[in-house]
Amino acid sequence: MRLLMKFGGTSVGDQECIGRVVGILNHYHTAGNELCVVVSAMSGVTDQLHAIAAEIEGVRDDPPIDTFITSMRTRHGKVVQAVAPGEYDTVMEVIDERLCNLKNILTAVHNLRELTPPDRVIISYRLGGNASPPSLSLRHCGKRVSPPHWH
Known about the structure:
59% of the residues lie in helices and 8% in strands. The chain has one domain (2-140): Carbamate kinase (3-Layer(aba) Sandwich). The protein is mostly helical. The protein has a two-stranded parallel sheet. Helix 1 packs across helix 6, helix 2 packs parallel to helix 4 and helix 3 (65-83) runs parallel beside helix 6. It has 6 helices and 2 strands, in the order βαβααααα.
């Protein structure tokens, strides 16, 4: 049977939550099901992205972009280290590239001092994809994980 499963941010909020998700997925996969899994950003990340974007839009002095990027890197790095330590360096390269892109977007918002509704969609930038902690956990357990497809 083919199953579509969606896990929200609270379900993948930290390494313990991700472990529970992986257990659920392993259960259904071992039972012979073909799975399609949709995973949200980790708990609070989208809200933090929106908050930092709104904050830097009106700041005239140095915005706290570097502090925000560092906190995101630390949080994701901690989870990656816990769920797939053997892939840490490779995955952090991907995350660092995405964080660099995010920093550029946030810097542009600050320089323009404008955040329009389409910009808010861009700010909902995800750090995950095939490098997300749930994907890493599954690969670490020997499961095949296909990259996301965007339509």
